[in-house]
Amino acid sequence: MFAPMTLAHGPAMKNRFMLAPLTNLQSHADGTLSDDEFRWLTKRAEGGFGLTMTCAAHVQAVGQGFPGQLGVFGDQHLEGLSRLAAAIKAAGSVSALQMHHAGNRSPKDLVGQPVCPSDDPETGARGLSLGEVEQLVEDFVAAAVRAEKAGFEGVEIHGAHGYVLAQFLSPEINRREDRYGGSVENRARIIFEIIEGVRARTGGDFQLGLRLSPERFGLKLAEIVQVARSILADGRIDYLDMSLWDVFKEPAEEEHKGRSLMSYFTELDRGHVRLGVAGKVTTPAIASTMLENGADYVLIGRAAILHHDFPERARDPDFTPVALPVTAEYLANEGLGPAFVKYMSTWPGFVQAA
């Protein structure tokens, strides 16, 4: 867990702990960084995480997924992002920004008309034109260029959790008949084009990661395994981050049960690309087991909310996070601002009732 991890580009992580990109609702309404979000993230960098990743930052105004979301779609965001990247690096952590677009999951009261790979009557999202898909690729790439300009050492492409890139991967949601629809290769094309664009327009030491999830939101495990295999074989990303919901679970699809969901990805030939897993990695013992089971690193979410210094505490193999529920005051002391504490109070059993 405490061995450094080199990456194909840029600086090594000092350990195998990556801060999961966590929704926290703390940025300003225009997507600029707030002091609360700055404090939340820099406190994790100071707490020993090998890589500190921002929450999902939207690459288009129409791609906003939740209130108080960090933005990376305009130069107005550069000042705050530059301040954040510098502070994360000063704390000895690798800095990364996650790039995101919510697609049909964008709330209408925030964006007006949500967009999606195809018309979606259920959410009222409008299908993107071919030109708009090409613009979406450009805006992901431009966001990476902007993150590099701000001083971040890398970005992660959010292709998971039913957001727009996962919507392209879904045969249920993506019913396009052009080069971005149909076969799984066509549905994954947008991700490969973003990877290609980021690599072409950023420096040789700039890191690039990708987050995928293999289930829910109309995704098929066999197809996501195929996409992951192709991404790993392509070799242009530095790390693949598999969000599994629970690292111990079996697949939801009956024909794939009988082994862990994680094992479908750890068995893939990954070349020099690093593979990480997320999903209820809450103790040092679980983190250690995941590394033994073939992951190169682990992403810490809930446990990082509870303990800003989880990596340092993990030096004690018997450490377990504080018992839930915790008080709002406890979370404030761990660096969560009022908006984040309020959000966590919507998670059943997480925050003690006042």
How would you sum up this structure, described in words?
The chain folds into 2 domains: 17-318, TIM Barrel; 322-354, no CATH class. Helix 2 packs across helix 4 and helix 4 (130-150) runs parallel beside helix 7 (189-201). It has 354 residues and is an alpha/beta fold. The chain has an 8-stranded parallel β-barrel, surrounded by 6 helices. It has a two-stranded parallel sheet with strand order 4-5. The longest helix is centred in the middle third of the chain and has 21 residues, at 130-150. It has 14 helices and 10 strands. It has helices at 35-46, 78-90, 108-111, 130-150, 164-169, 184-187, 189-201, 221-234, 263-266, 284-292, 302-306, 310-313, 328-333, 338-344; strands at 17-19, 51-58, 94-100, 115-116, 126-127, 154-159, 207-212, 239-243, 274-278, 297-300. 50% of the residues are buried.
